[in-house]
Write a structure and sequence with these properties.
The structure holds two protein chains of two kinds. By secondary structure, chain A is mainly beta. Chain A is built from one helix and 22 strands. Chain A has a single domain (2-89, 98-237), classed as Cupredoxins -  blue copper proteins (Immunoglobulin-like). In chain A, the strands form seven sheets. Chain A has a five-stranded mixed beta sheet with strand order 11-17-16-13-14. A four-stranded antiparallel beta sheet of chain A has the order 18-7-20-21. Chain A has a four-stranded mixed beta sheet with strand order 10-9-12-15, with no helix packed on it. In chain A, a hairpin with a 2-residue loop joins strand 9 and strand 10. Chain B has six domains: 81-186; 222-343, no CATH class; 353-372 and 640-718; 389-446 and 462-626, Cytochrome c-like domain (Cytochrome Bc1 Complex, Chain D, domain 2, Orthogonal Bundle), CATH 1.10.760.10; 725-825, Cytochrome Bc1 Complex, Chain D, domain 2 (Orthogonal Bundle); 842-942, Cytochrome Bc1 Complex, Chain D, domain 2 (Orthogonal Bundle), CATH 1.10.760. Chain B has 34 helices and eight strands. A two-stranded antiparallel sheet of chain B has the order 1-2. The longest helix of chain B has 44 residues, at 97-140. The chains are: A mainly beta, B mainly alpha. Chain A binds chain B through residues 1, 3-4, 6-7, 10, 55-57, 131-132, 134-136, 138, 144-148, 150-153, 167, 169, 171-174, and chain B through 491, 507, 757-762, 854-858, 861-862, 870-873, 875-876, 900-901, 905-912, 914, 918, 920. Bound molecules: copper (II) ion.
Chain lengths: 240, 961
Amino acid sequence: MTKLFTFLFTLIGLISFLGTSAWAYEAIEVTNGGTITGTVKFAGEPPERPMIEPSKDKEVCKPHPASNLIVSKETKGIQYAVAYLADIQKGKPQEKPAENPKFDQKGCEYLPHVLIFPAGSTVDILNSDGILHNVHTFSQANPPINKAQPKFKKVLQEKVEYPEVINVKCDVHTWMNAYWVVTGHPYYAATDENGNFKLENVPPGNYKLGVWHETLGTVTQDVVVKEKEETKVNVEMAPK
Amino acid sequence: MAEKDQEKIFIEAVERKSYGHIYFIITLIGLAMTLWAFWDEVITRRPWKKYQKEFNRFELARAEAELKQAQAKLNTPEYKELEKKLAEAEKDFNSRKGSYRDALRRLKEAKIKLFEVSQEQQFLKSEADEAFYWYSKALHENDKDVLIRKHELDKLEAKVKEMQPEIDKRQSEVAAIEKEIEGIKGNLENLQAEKRKYTTDIEQIRRKIEGIKARPIEIKQIVVEKSLLTNFGNHVDRAERCMTCHVAIDRVGFEDADIPQPFRTHPKRQEIFGRHPIERFGCTLCHAGQGAALTVEQAHNGEQQVKAVHDKDRPIKINHNTEFWSRPLFLGENVQIGCRKCHEIDRGLEEAPRLTQGRRNFEELGCHGCHLVKGYENYPKVGPDLTRVGDKVTADWMFQWIKNPRTFRVETRMPNFLLSDENVEAIVAYLMNVTRGKYLAQAPGQKTENEGTGGQGNGSFSPSLPSYSAVPVALSKNYQPSPERGKELVQSIGCLGCHVIGEGTEVKDEQGNPIKIVPQVDDNGVIRVSVPRKTGRKFGPDLSGIGSKTNFQWLVRWLKDPKSYDPKTPMPNFRLSDEQAQDIAAYLMTLKWDGESKILGLEEKIKDPALIEKGAKLIRNYGCFGCHTIPGMEKEQRIGAELTTFGNKWIAQMSFGNATHIPETWWDWTINKLRNPRIYATEREILRMPNFGLLDEDIKAIAMFLKSLTGEEREIPDYIYKPDPIKMALIQGRELVRQYNCIGCHIIENKGGAIRAFYKPQELNMAPPLLEAGELHEGEKVRHDWLSNFLKNPVPIRPWLKVRMPTFGFSDEEVATLVSYFSVLAKKRFPYELPKEPFLLPNMIQAGARLASSDYLNCFNCHQQGDKKPEGPPEGWAPDLAMATGRLNPDWIVKWIKDPQKIQPGTKMPMFFPDENSGPDDILEGNEEQQILALRDYVLSLGSIPTGKISLAPVKSPEEK
Ligand SMILES: [Cu+2]
C-alpha cells in the first residue's frame, strides 16, 4: 500500500511539473530583462549522504555518495534542484547548444546527475567505464528507450523531441539513477552545491517560480521581475 | 268475349307485372357481395400492400431526385468544357487515323520479333540450367568431368548473355511504338472515360427507376426450415412474412433514423446478417413473436411506440394485450434473449452483454442451487463447503453472518433469509454440531502416512478428502509469527491479485471503478449493491475483518493447503513454508471487524439437542444445501420450483398473492419477485426465497436470462452455434481463465493485471508477467510442452521474485485447454506445433558465445547461467539462459532480441541492436542479422529439451461435451 501511495505521489508530482512545461512559448527579443538569483535551502537538519556500495562490476564501479538529496552542511543549500519559470509565455529564444549535451557513465554513476537541455537536442551518451550499461528511460511524452551500451560502444546518440522530466536508469547497475530535464523554454537552471541558481534576461513581469527536486517534489512561489534589476528569492524545501 | 277479354287482361296483367326491380336489387346485392369479397381479398386482408406501395413511392422519389441531380451535372460548365475538349480530341484523332493504323501494324510486328528472340534466349537458359545441374552434381561427387561440365556451363551462359543486347533493342522498339500510339490518341481515352462517368450514373439511376416501377406488389416470404419445435417433438418449417412490410430490412441505404418504420434497414446489418443470413435464419428465430398477424398491432408488442408510416406525428397505439402473450416479440435490448437459444455454449457471449450479465448473475448467485434448470443439473454449488466450517468460524460470527451477511461483507453474494434470532440460533446449533472438530482437532502433532508429501513446491495434492491430514500444522513453539512479515508477504506474493483488503474509494480496479463500493439501503433495511463480477481483485472475498471470523490455526492450515479444507476451492496453493503461513495468518488475525459482538450464552444454547433438531428442519426448509455442502444434507433435493421453461410461463400460472398493485404481466411479476422475493406471500402461501439485495440493473439482466429459459435451447439442432475448433478453444480457454481468475495477476487479451497497480513503473518487471497483451503472445513465446508442464507444476523462472505463480492443481484436460487457448491467441498452428529443432552450426554457436561474453554484450552480467548467479542484488537478475532451450520458441528468441521493448514495454532487457552499426564489427563481419541468429543458437546450445512424455489430453469437441 505504501508503495502505491509513494508511486501515486511521485506520479502526481511529475505530472504537475510536466503540465507547467507544456505551455505554448513564444520567442521574442528581450532587451530590458531582469535577473532572478536565488537559493534553494533545506528546511531542517541537513541529512547525511548515504554511500552507494556497488554490488557488481566492482573493478569499475566505485563506492560513491548518493545524489538523490545533496544538502550542503554549511549553507543548507540543495544541489540538483531545478528552478524554472512555470508560467512564462514570452521570452528569449531557446537556443540549441553548439555541442550536443554530454551524459557520461563513469564509475557506474551518471554525470551529471541532472542534465538540462532543450527539446529537440541529441544527447551524446558516453561510456567512460567501458563495461556494459543500458540506458533505460521512463518517459511519457517521448517514446521510452532501453538500449544496451556494451563496452565496445563508446557513444550512443539519442534525440529527445518533447519537453518533460525523464528518469534515466541502468538495469545492469540498479543504483544508477539520473534525470534529464528536457525544456520547452530557456528559463531553467539547476542549483549548484550551495543551492544557488540564476535565471537571466527575464522579461519584466510577474511569474510563478517553480523548483523541482527528485526527492522533495515541487514548490512554487510568486516572483516579480523588474527591468534590468536583480530579483533575489529564497526557496525552502522540506522532506515530504 | 268478356271471358276472352278477361283472360287477355289477366295474361296481360301477368305479363305486364314487372319483377325487374327485385332482380335488380338481388343483382345489386350480388354485385356488392362480389365487390366486397373482392375488396376484402385484395385490400382489407392485404394491408401490407399499402406499405409496399408507400415504400415504392418513397424509393422512387429518392431515385428521381438522384436522377435530377445527375442530369443537372450535364449543364455544368465543367461538363460543357469536357464535351468541347472531347470533340476536339476526336477531330484530331480522326485526322491521324492513317498513321494510327500504321503504328498498330508496326507494333504487332515488333512484338512478334521480341517474342521470337526472348523465346530463343529462354531455351538457352533452360539448357544452361541443365548444365548447371550436371556441373553441381559433378562437383558434389568429385567427378573427373567437372571441368568439362564447367566449360559447357560457361559456354551456354555466355550465349545467353550474348543475346541480351538484341532483346533490349527489340524491347525498346516496342516501347517506342507504344509511345507513338499514345501520342496519336492523345488524351482521347481519358476524356471518353470521364464522360462515361456522367452518363453511366444517369443510366444506372434510370434503370433503377424502371425497376422500382415494374416491381410487383407481393408477399415476401422466408421459410426458416425446421426451426419450429412442435408439441409432438418434431421440427417443422416456419414461414415468415415480416419482410413484406420490412422491405428494406436487408438493404443498404435505409439506415437513417429519419426513415419511418417499417422501412428502416436492420441495425448493425452487416455484423448481424453477415453471420446470420436472413434467408436462412429469418426474423423470429431471434425476435420470437406470437405468430401470424395482419396488422401492426397484432404483429408487434411492447411498450415502445411505433411511428406511423403515413402520419409521422400520429404514433400507432400498440395493443397492450400483447404483454400477456407467452411468446412476445423481442425488441430493443430484449432481443438478446433470443441469442441463448443457439449460443448457450458461449458463456461469455459479448454480443449480448445484458443477457450475459444476467446469466453470470444467475450462475454466480447460485440460483441453480434451489431451482432446477436444464443444463445446470450438475453445475457446482456456489457457496463454500461447510463440512468443516465449525473449525473455521466462531458461533458468534456465524450467527451475525446468517442474520445479515452484508453487515460483515458488503459485497457478499450470500442472501439475507430474513430469519428470526431464534431460527438463526437453531441453524448455528446444527452446523456447529455436525462440523466442529473435523479439521483442526486431529491436526497438531498427529502424523499420518501421507505426511510430507504436501510440503513445499511439489504441488501434488489430490482433491480427495483424506489427504488434508498430509499438511503438517505442528505449530512450532520456537517460532514467533510476525504480523509485519505476514503483511509484507500478503502485499508481495500475489494475494492482492484476487483479494481486496479494506481499501478506500481512492483505490481503483482495472476499469477505473473504485474498489470500495457504497451500498444502498432500501426502506426495508435491505442492503443493495450491484452483483460484483467474480473477477480481478474481487474474485476472492474482501479479507477485511477476517480476524473476527476465523482463527489462527485454521488460517495456517488453509494457507498451507486450501484444498485440504475445501476440495473444490479455487484458492491455489502458494507453496508457503510453515513460517510464512504462520506470519500471514498472524497478520490476517489482526484484521478485526468493528461490528463483532458476543451473543450471550450462545455457546451453551447451541448444545441443546432440540435446538439442533430445529436447525436441521430449518436448513431443509430453506435449502441451504443448494449452495453449500452440509453434512447430513447430502441427499436433499432442490427446494425451489423448476425454471427450465420459466420464460414461457403463463400469467395465469403466476400467483400475485395480495400484491394487487403490481401489473399482471410476466415481466412485472418476475422483476418484483427478484427485488422482494416474499412479496407474493399470503397467509396460506409461505415463501422462503431469500433476499439477494439486487439493484434494478442486475434484476433486469436476470429477468432477461429467465425469459430466455424456454426449453427450446438445444432443441433446434440445425441452428445451434457450433464453434469451429479455434473458436471452441477460445471459449473454453476464456472460461477457464475466468474460473481461476488468471487475470487477477496477468494481462490476458488485454484485460486484467490489476495487481500491477501496486508496482512503480520502474518495478513492473517484478510484477506477474503479461501473457497476452499487445505484441506479447505467450503461445508464441514458449513451447507448448513447457507450458503444459509449467501449468501442472510451476517452477519459478525468476526464483528471486516475491510474487509467485501458485499451484492451481489443474487437471490434464484443463492444462490442454489452456495451452490450446494460448496457441490460438498467438495465431499458431492449432492445436499444437512443436518448434522445429534448429540445426545448430558450431561456428554460429562459437560466434554467439563470443558475443555473449563479457568482452561484448556481457549477457551473464544479468542472466543466470545454470548455478552461476549474476553479481549484485536479485532485483537486477534475469532468467537462466539455459532454461530457454526447453522453454522458448527459437523464432521468438530472435524477435525478442531484435526489440524487447516492443514485445514487453518496460522490460529490463535492453535493445542491443538498434541499428546497422550496433553490433561489433569483428564478429560475423559485423552483420547484425547473423549476430542475432548466432546469439539464439548459442542460447539454445546451453540447455536441453526435457525428454520424457508430455501428457496432453485432447481437447474435447463440442459434441463430446
Ligand atoms: Cu550501468
